[in-house]
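Re: beginner question about structure tokens

> Can someone show what the tokenized structure looks like for a real chain? I only ever see the sequence side.

Sure, here's an example I had lying around. Input first:
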Amino acid sequence: MTDTHALIRDLRKENGSKIVLLVGDGLGGLPLAPGGKTELETAKTPNLDALAQRGTLGLSTPVLPGIAPGSGPGHLGLFGYDPLQFRIGRGVLEALGIDFALGPNDVAIRGNFCTIDAAGLITDRRAGRIGSDIGAKLCTKLDTIKIPGVEVFVRPVKEYRLVIVFRGEGLGGNVEDTDPQATGVAPLTAVARTDCSKKTAEIANEFLRQAREILKNDAPANFLTLRGIDKLPGIPTFQEVYGLRAGAIAVYPMYRGLARLVSMDVLDAGQTLSDQMARLEAAWNDYDFFFIHFKYTDSTGEDGNFAAKVQRTEELDSCIPRITALKPDVIIVTGDHSTPAKMKSHSWHPVPTLLAADTCRFDSSTEFGESACARGGLGHFEAKYLMMLAMAHAGRFDKYGA
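And the corresponding structure tokens:
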């Protein structure tokens, strides 16, 4: 197998150019009816359309054809890390995103507060999207759980999301999720995939047993499910691979965690897209590469709200002039996966991608949307090669071979 990271290290060079990667989470969509327009094609996006007219479009596959990726694999691909080689549990990303210092004896877990009925069946997988203040109080209650032979840490993330960390000797991170990804059924039991993770599964089930008793009177958040159970892996840093000083501007903890996983500097970015643009402007001279994350094209898609996803896409479009005013050498606009409102979930559909630079081979595109991207000059490519295209268009590669 070709070691593309080694090749990048051999060819990369410093030239002072700047790259911006703007990720509209779950950007790709579907029309509500055959022959209709997707959310991106329905939205009024004059700034993205103008950018498309001086750039090149294409469709990227986050993992493999037919595979619907989580946000972790989707982003790792965009950062140029093969998501099949670097498989990272969501618990690790959430923990890093809230600045929890994970050690070698830690297993990190992403938790979702949920609602269960009297029969123990899930009626709402996200507990009505409770407020972060409520979630924090519930985490304080759960943080009192004691299990012999292991330390237990429970920390709030955002809204219904939380992080649980088990710290102890002999813990493996290969345990099945307890979220059945459906309502009307009971949460699953934690099951180890390997013998070395059996102890972790036993601890997880004991944690859930105690949590059910503690939360029984706290509807709608009267239970929780566990997801992305894993340990911190070894992974080369972004600067080691690309030689780029990278700054991440993300609001949601998980995406800050993804950036921190590859050792990007995570910049305080407030809560709004305008705050993020202000942070980009303030930090412009300090970094070569900026990763900017916008969550709400994904959450509206998951909610099945086509109109709201259109509105959020238009909001994303509104920030483009502030980015282009900084005159980046390369600007990329894409998503980590598709989240069609029609499906209310992540999907396997390839993701619309726009790359604009003075070195683009223009492809006659006049607008940014899935149909235009299907005809674009970038073609249909694996997302793990996007950073190589960014480096090339930024003039940061030497010639390969004689």
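Each token stands for a local structural state, so reading them left to right follows the chain. The radius of gyration is 21 Å.
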